[in-house]
Amino acid sequence: MPDSAIRPRKEFGKTIAADITHRLREEIVSCSLPPGEPLRFDVLRERFGASFTTLREALTALAAEGLVDAQEQRGFRVAPVSRQDLVEVTDARVLIEVELIRRAIERGDDDWEIAVISTLHRLKRIEQRDPEHPLRDPEWKIAHRQFHQALVSACGSATLLGIRAELFDRAERYRHLSANFRPRPRDKAGEHQAIMQAAISRNADLAVQLITTHIRTTADNVAKYAGHLLDAE
């Protein structure tokens, strides 16, 4: 079938490529598309009904975010996970989050405080639906992202927020691995509550300490319980 005859369905983005980028990003981040999975044009073209040019645009965008690997003469694949990548993403996240939460605490107004409190409240309500397995609810992922975004939203730098968002997506894959393989539930609700309280109390040093531990605990759990996947590459 010629490309001109294809009528792909657009849902999320302003363009077809943006829609496909969004959908693939969600599947990569959630590990529905596992690390290292080949992303073959013929399969994607049949699935999305998009031209090769559109698919290449989407995959190139994801490669720029570090979620897809462009392999010379071999096409594209989901970016693998590794110990080195885990360390680099974790260190970069800590650097960015520490800077942004300090700025947000310094500059945040009443609206910022309300946003932090309300997003955590929504996250808690979702967790109460299934206290044993709250992360299974797809709305938890959205609410979790919104809470962490709210914490740094008053930082005053759209550029840094953009970098942070890309790092958050790259780290989200490792969070899924941590949740899937760790033997005991983690008290994320307690961690989030403590971070929120430190932030709205304007205790920047404590907030930095808590957010750093929050991020690094995920990395430590991945290395400890999913190390066989990190060593598979």
UniProtKB/TrEMBL annotation:
Keywords assigned by UniProt, alphabetized: DNA-binding, Transcription, Transcription regulation
Gene3D superfamilies listed in its UniProt record: GntR ligand-binding domain-like (1.20.120.530), Winged helix-like DNA-binding domain superfamily/Winged helix DNA-binding domain (1.10.10.10)
GO MF entries: DNA binding; DNA-binding transcription factor activity
SMART domains per record: FCD (SM00895), HTH_GNTR (SM00345)
Domain named HTH gntR-type: residues: 14-81
Keyword Transcription: yes
PANTHER family assigned: HTH-TYPE TRANSCRIPTIONAL REPRESSOR GLAR, TRANSCRIPTIONAL REGULATOR, GNTR FAMILY
The protein's name in its UniProt record: GntR family transcriptional regulator
Lineage, broadest ranks: Bacteria, Pseudomonadati, Pseudomonadota, Alphaproteobacteria, Hyphomicrobiales
